[in-house]
Amino acid sequence: MPELARHAVVVGGGIGGLTAALALHRRGWRVTVCERADGPAVLGAGIVLAPNALHALETIGFDLADAAGAAVPAAIGGLRRPDGRRLTRAATAAAAARYGRPPLALHRSTLAASLAAALPEGALVYGSAVTAVEETRGRAVVRTCAGDLGADVVVAADGIHSTLRRRHFPDHPGLHHSGETAWRTVLPGGAVTEACETWGRGERFGTVPLADGRVYLYATAVVPRGYRPADVRAELLRRYGAWHDPIPALLDGIDPAAVLQHDLYDLAAPLPRLHDGRIGWIGDAAHAMTPNLGQGGCQAIEDAVVLAHLLERADRAGVPAALAAYTRARLTRTDVLRVRSRRAGRVASLSHPLAVAARDLAIRATPARATRRAVDDLFGGFALPARPPA
Known about the structure:
Blueprint: E1 7-11, H1 15-25, E2 30-35, E3 46-49, H2 51-59, H3 65-68, E4 79-80, H4 92-99, E5 104-107, H5 108-117, E6 124-126, E7 130-136, E8 139-144, E9 147-151, E10 153-156, H6 163-168, E11 175-187, E12 196-199, E13 203-209, E14 215-222, H7 232-240, H8 247-252, E15 260-267, E16 275-276, E17 279-281, H9 284-287, H10 296-311, H11 319-348, H12 353-365, H13 368-379
Helix pairs in contact: 1-5, 1-10, 2-10, 10-11
């Protein structure tokens, strides 16, 4: 069939890129994923797939059973103070009833491996850095360190520091530093049975039990950009070692060499559009957001599924119209969440004692129905758009 000749090149082999490749493959496209790394990531952290992301994966027939196994649902909410006093309680059962299923927590490498295994043999090419994308005679030419590739569409999933975004939107202001840094690691196991986040003064600490029995830990602090402590364990113990159980015991068990630290950024402003020519941007490359809503990876999955849906029936001539429809479908939703995540981070990272006390009081006083409404747009906001006319 002529449609089978259509070729999509995906730039980046992260969660968004792999999802896009799988979604396109299952909609009749030949796919090539160009990943600049020489192989799968050795280190990594956890990811919580919210109901919206799980629903998106279901629409492409991707079964997480092999990746997740006897998965541990990730509780929603569960905020505490450093002394252990609860500000909110988890609502996993309510989420299952309201959104069809609870969130699911697993290791990023586990999810990535499962997505990659579902692709055709040879579709994922490691050590293939993309240097440029050009368009000629109605097709894209993808320049890589290993040679050129012809493509009918290019999916830019090259991350928060997207080279393709900078090249094609040179007037965009780029990234905005949130004022925080984050440490992330995964422990072999522990007694953590619920996802919990603790808010202090300019500091946060979170725990998430993963499907395979491991525990994902993360912590944030308001520090200058580029701050890197010489002794990671000592730094974390100094900041969080006196917080409620089981945080001190968990910190005692970390391997400093396995702790990832990244300053937190988001996109300073929305892109004017999520496509240019035959390129469509997804995930952090399109709308980098801080992790305060837990929606970065989830929105990348939504992007990928929506893009493949709109491209399913597009022949080569119809690709530009499908990409324009993708921008219309995704730009507003993702930018609203980018801004909302930034605002949530500002509240969570307050450090003045009076401001922190007022924040905690406001959280405790917020009615449950208001909290449910706040997450409805997140967890219930995914839907496949209508395709443009052929």
